[in-house]
Give the backbone structure.
Amino acid sequence: MKKRPIRFAKSPLAAGITTALLMLTYAPAQAATFNFGDVEVVFDSTFSYGASWRTEERNWDTIAKVNHPRFDWTGYNAATNVIYPSADIWAQPGGYSTNGDAGNLNFDRGDMFSSMFKGLHELSIKKDNIGFFGRFMYFYDTALNDGKFAYTNPLSGNKVDPCEDKRSSELACKDLRLLDAYIYGNFAFNDGMNPVTVRVGNQV
């Protein structure tokens, strides 16, 4: 068995343009090679960790008007107790939709909004000109999965948890993904003048 040494890579602290975030990543990798006669097997793994913090206060111009802290919605009822006239709400700074500000509301200045561990694994099996290649990855964000968010909906009393939605969870919270799984063959025709590669299977 042959081993390649572990490789380490760190990214510098980076400042986000809009949310002014800080990021720290750490990514070791290791591969192992095995030979069984004419068959070569290579298994490669890469692990990484990244963390991000919010370093600026919210820009309330990007928050929905009804979500501004000056409004107290205790006892609100759309039929019997609207609490505030519409004109008072629309006169406030901010956006008109509540559909895009949950991420901004969920984290205060200084909060860690991402703490993600990732794993990427590749398997290569080759004999002469025929082989198999497979690759999959997974990730888990502890900052999102622990459910500790700053914002609570004043009407429902519920947290806005992105991990409760299946699609959002797969994109940001946790997931396991098959990237590649295919058989390939490398061939040459016309005395090697025309190389051809054939792949059958799942490819990214």
Summary: The longest strand covers residues 39-54. Residues 2-57+110-202 form one domain. Confidence is low (pLDDT under 50) at residues 1-22.
